[in-house]
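Note to self: keep these together.
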Amino acid sequence: MSDLNETHDPALRGWLPSANDDTLGFPVQNLPYCVFRRAGSQEAWRPGTGIGDRILDLAALARARPFTGDAARALESCQGKDLNALMALDAADWSALRLALSRALRQGSTLQDMIAPLLVAQADAEFSVPARIGDYTDFYISLYHATAVGRQFRPDNPLLPNYKWVPIGYHGRASSIGVGQHFHRPVGQTRPAQEGGTPGFGPCARLDYEVELGIFIGTGNALGRRVALDHAEAHVFGLTILNDWSARDLQAWEYQPLGPFLAKNFASTISPWIVTLEALAPFRVPFQRADGEPQPLPYLSSAHNSAAGAFDVCLRAALSTAQSRDQGAPAATLSRGNFRHAYWSLGQLVAHHTVNGCNLQPGDLLGTGTLSGPEPDQAGSLLELNQGGKTPVSLPWGETRMFLQDGDEITLAAECVKPGYPRLSFGTAVGRVLPALD
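Structure:
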């Protein structure tokens, strides 16, 4: 687990004025990674790190060779079109680069004059998926989401017997993961109106969003070599925001017996930013099960995981529509939640994913599944907010929504906030629904 070090000092200030603007959430204590280029240009995509309202061009910085040792080796890996080469290094290299960047960007740095010309305004940039994602696994780690959804189908027994013993997941589609997506409404089969009848076919009518976090794998493991829980976090490069769009009517028809397929693989939207696990160290909290809950099996249990295996990350989902944008109305907050309510920790997800010998690789993405909280206004999907399609959600400008309509835009945000420490932002994951194609 990442220990606190000098990069976490809450008193640190950046020499770039906007780095000290707490409303932005990109202080010198954050330093998230992205892949970017200047908007509208034909420049090569390259890695960057966020500081204030700017992006530090890491490829250009690498050519200047300002660092030595492990930090220099890590920076050297930041010259490709994605972050995979950096992810393939180990946690010591990531930490060395973070320390060097922190010292270079904080007040009093001797590198300020050299670095200042390498900064690009975030407003002038466009972003790409930050890693080459070879594989994508989506989990189901919110007890509150699983219970709420299960109750709609099995009122007396909402959770299946395995839920509290094994992290449930399915293999998703990496090719349809994107940043800032505008995607067409999916088309597919739906359940027959009568038992034994012919399935319907056409555009999805019950399109939904899901508030999730994405876990980017860094250092991989060899095929056949499981990762022990106490070493699992050393394989995690960082976290991003994830919206796993879901076609609920397609899902209801196809999910048995093998689980999600076309209802999930048409689009998944992430934030362009990856917040490193080391940056999140000040926001660790105990991972605890409530009294009466079964305790994890030994391979999913450790003193370290219990002491600080969870993270206090605040989540928010907001909706704008074509009508609200025409009126100039701000997006409506649909829900707020927190990652700390998850039933399984990210270390447990990595340990379980590899316990059978599965090999994870740099750039692989693990989704947490919908992160709902214990209160009704903490639900991470419309399916929960509308109680399975029974109660429309009212919007401030007079519209209602049961499920998403064409032109609707969902913005997911995540941040870490606590007294006496700068706010850390994960940016936003933004997606808009376009009409179905003929």
